[in-house]
Please model this.
Amino acid sequence: MAQKRKKFSSEFKDEAVRMVIEQSRPVAQVARELGLVEGTLGNWVNSYRRAHPGEEAPLTISERARLRELEKEVRELRMKTEFLGKAAAFFAQEYR
Model:
């Protein structure tokens, strides 16, 4: 049996989006708190961002530092993954 779709007021949607954008909170966390499906809130946030480009506050110094750390970690993990892939291919040939 099909479920009825919930209708949310524009005020509710705006408040939910504000919680994500202004407070820099994860969509998943806010969605859980409000009893929403994560994808629904994500769609609302994406729509807001498309309609209001450039309105979000810039990153703080600590956020920038954390972003640099995470980007460095991603680079290192990609290098390790690439190395392990090449090593696995090498060892697979050796055992044939």
Remarks:
- Residues 28 and 44 are 13 Å apart (CA to CA).
- The longest helix spans residues 61-94.
- The mean pLDDT is 88.
